[in-house]
């Protein structure tokens, strides 16, 4: 990108009539797997100075509550495909230590279903519970559901009550396995095998509790050789009994090409559109009146820790696995991925930034010590805080560039959220690495709205990171956007994440 592109300008039109859909707040969900220090040393550390009476870290709890996370997927992930849920309930002294095969660690089972459900309720989150369809199946899934949701008078519900949890957890959302198309998965299935076991498991679970929502397992990424055939075959079984199908996707910048890296959200867009169209094909094939919605329940940047992870010795408790230290450009891509989710609010109803603490996460901790915000914390915070309401379709005219893997990449990446008679929020990423982008946005349909804040996340160094000692990458509110005669005028700094908030006067 040369200096010849100086003076870049983009135009945008926003109108109340250009509606995409009401945003389900659960698109701002996250994920806690029994992996690395996500649980042990992350959300839970009984000896930590801030630990509550149950052993959960209050400093971490405060940061999570700042993000206002509506739903958290648990307990995996690859972990769930070898997990016996019964190991994690009952008296602590009776719980076994197990070889955890997905990540080759020792699972002490100090935290299990009850502890996590109680903690999630305390921080204001729902639980998205996953069942093991790798080494187990229908029986374990229906028993876990009975344990969690049935009020009492049956074997499993009375067992829960004997464990000190008189009231049912009332967990609404359940994942039918995890990444069952993957060769790395314990108990990998063919599409036909998965479709059958998922359908039979769902059928039994709905007999136990007809009020639950079910997520059928989709492709592990767009790179899977069976994508999107996996969706077409598995949904042939699960379309009428499941409510959502899952999508998982991670991106990295292994070739150190930042312009290409910042365009990767276009692959996420392609993924969503392909899965939605595959769902609609199955809908047409079945002559169904039901629309299948999407749960993008794993997404993030993940690549920094790969080399370090290969050197970790197996069979320890809570080793430092998948501890990506995120830089500034990672935050920009996370911002664009959030924008992509918002632009598809009509089909994507749940999403989980993977994960929440330490393991490819916005929050990092020291065992026995501090907790801090990674760079990616901030776009996630801003979207969760200001991105609730109705997603509007912005009509964008932006200059574009060609990257190694993508063509016609708009420098301006944007989404718009409207809360009726309250607030209009413009989320915008300037992907240009060298030049500011002038934005002129037509908001004449929003009479008497004024700008109350222009938040900017920017840094001269794309590789800048936050540590326990220094928070180098943090937002400011000196963006300087103005609203004149029904038009927002803003200068979007080079390589920046912007949140422009307007409110009715």
* Main β-sheet description: 8 strands, parallel, barrel
Helix/strand-derived category reads alpha/beta
Global morphology: globular
User: How much beta, percentage-wise?
Assistant: 15-25%
Q: How are the strands of the biggest sheet laid out side by side?
A: 3-4-7-8-9-10-11-12
Q: What does this protein structure show overall?
A:
The structure is a single chain. The protein is of the alpha/beta class and 505 residues long. It is built from 11 helices and 25 strands. An 8-stranded parallel beta barrel has the order 3-4-7-8-9-10-11-12, surrounded by 6 helices. A 6-stranded antiparallel beta sheet has the order 2-15-19-20-25-22, covered by helices on one side. Helix 6 links the parallel strand 9 (213-216) and strand 10. Helix 3 runs parallel beside helix 5, helix 5 runs parallel beside helix 6 (229-238) and helix 10 packs parallel to helix 11. The radius of gyration is 23 Å and the shape is globular.
